[in-house]
Structures
1.
Amino acid sequence: MTMTLGQQIVTILMVILGTVLTRFLPFFLFPPNKPTPKFIQYLGTVLPSAVLGMLVIYCLKDINLLAGNHGIPELIAIAVVVGLHLWKRQMLLSIAGGTITYMILVQRIF
Amino acid sequence: MINQKEVIQNAFKAAFPVTVPIMAGFTFLGLAYGIYMNVSGFSFLYPMLMSLTIFAGSAEFVTVSWLLGPFAPLKALLLTLMINARHLFYGLSMLEKYNIPGLKKYYLIFGMCDESFSINCTADIPVGVDKSWYMFFVTLLNHLYWVAGATMGGLFGSLIHFNTQGLEFVMTALFVVLFLEQWMKEKHHGSSLLGLGLSVLCLTLFRGANFIIPSMCLILGALALLQKPLEKVGGLQ
């Protein structure tokens, strides 16, 4: 290890600072005691759906469609999650069913 | 009137079941992170304290490589801001929900990882359950799972041998389910489709995690352009 303990602590503090900044900034900029701009209020209502969509894609960011298993296990397992959820609408069942399907696919088949 | 203790207990009972998938996911990912630090030559104290104080999985994983490289604090700060830029959108989405009295608010914002955000954002909190305690327990339990996993990985990392390949999919499954829940609740799907579509577009243009910031810019631009029509068809409420 090339860094001293002090340098390691500073590096970790920087990561903490960066994370805390991204989490607190919106609350800092738009405090409850001041009227929030209309556009920001609008964003507050439409962003959650868009962000959840982005998060789903974020989980799939390391898939390579052109090589390896072409993301087929992920697509099948997501189809199982969606199918189970539309059928029973029980969060744990959908998640467990999809995850077990995925594990079987990547361990046994692909 | 119900007393404070009962309010807290009820909130815990309502919040715990929702966090069970995250218990599975975070224990596993936390273990993976702890093992990674362990084999990189760090004591278990590192994953334990870093998971406690940073509480942002992807940033913690890359910090390991920064700790092994030359001392570059500014680079660490700037890259963390980029990796975690998506939290800005979480904050904008939670301005109202997290606007609660007391110190809990600050902990909720500190602990706003992907999982705590998405659960608290989509949660249908049962009538009679205190919202602020419910969101507090979701965040706290997630935090505990993550620290426990990372610490165990750091301590016993090299001793664990069972086939967990593919278990990480539990997080993808969680987000798919939360996306579906949101989809079923909303009156129109404009924003959901924009989020999915523009992210896919950016992922094909920019490889891997690099797609996040361009996606955020495009989503913001599209939502700004479509403000009139989207407001016309009505939001969620």
Note: Residues 4-39 of chain B form the longest helix (36 residues).
2.
Amino acid sequence: MNVRLYVWQRATAALMLPLVLVHVTVIFYATRRGMTAADILARTRGSIVWAALYGTFVIAAAIHAAIGVRNVLTEWSPLGERAASLFTVAFGAALLLLGLRAVAAVVL
Amino acid sequence: MSDARSELTVSLWRGAQQGRYERYNVPLRENQTVLDVVTFVQRHLDPTLSYRFACRVGVCGSCAMTVNGRPRWTCRTHVSTVAKAGHLEIGPLENLPVIKDLATDMRAFFEKWQQAKGAFVPSKTRHDAIDAIRPDSPARIAADAAIECINCGICYAACDTVRWNPDYLGPAALNRAWTLVNDARDAGNAARLAAVAAAGGCHACHSHQSCQEYCPQALNPTASIAGLKRRTAAAYLRGEIKA
């Protein structure tokens, strides 16, 4: 890992820390209240706040996880730096796509 | 270890990278160090045994070996503190190629000091006045905590990251770079920070802290490396170094 990847990984971790707390709180709130999927969707559809919150979370998680997986691959697999980078760019893009699709499904 | 015992059994690594442990019986003495044991074997049992030492008092950093599985400075390690049931197993340091028996090839270790820009770069000539450095300045305190390294290679042998990443500069070289980063008289920090911020530099450290655990000088290279991580990240964000 070089300093550029280090800064991105630490910055996305710092960004995700409050988002994880919000996410866990939301899970507890929704399950304690016994909310149905319809109840939740009624609150999230058309909400810019939920879209921004989970959209940011997904982007940060995709970058953070991709850098982490790249580290594991360069340290533990026979892949070189370049091959590991290519693989993890694809992995991060897949996470981003899946995550943003899920966000779109609850806010649009 | 029982007081009644009069002999130690010692297994010493013989050969190069490929080799085997051979057993010797060595008389047990009071206040005997592990280096005394190795020296006894060479002087009295097998003069072909190769090993390295110089000062015998914990200053030169030449005599580090693997003793019962752990890297140690053998001249300052008493047999009574490490022998298990009257037995010692002594091998060469890990993570370095073995030349012969207990002597390793330390070139990679010292070349990485150079790669980490571990040499002082003067900012003045002999005609300039000497910088006054206050002992209580934060930079001097940070350098002080890391400055007593004796280059023994124990941290390098103990480091998991060195083991799996041959390009990693290692705890000692990065610890040295940290002392110079905090030296107000040094003029080489732009190149130094760039060198330790590249792949294989300080950001490869996983903070397992084996270097701190085994350093015979009780230094904490992990803390020095953490300092480099902060300093290089700040330099990168200010655009002073590229990645």
Note: Chain B has ten helices and seven strands.
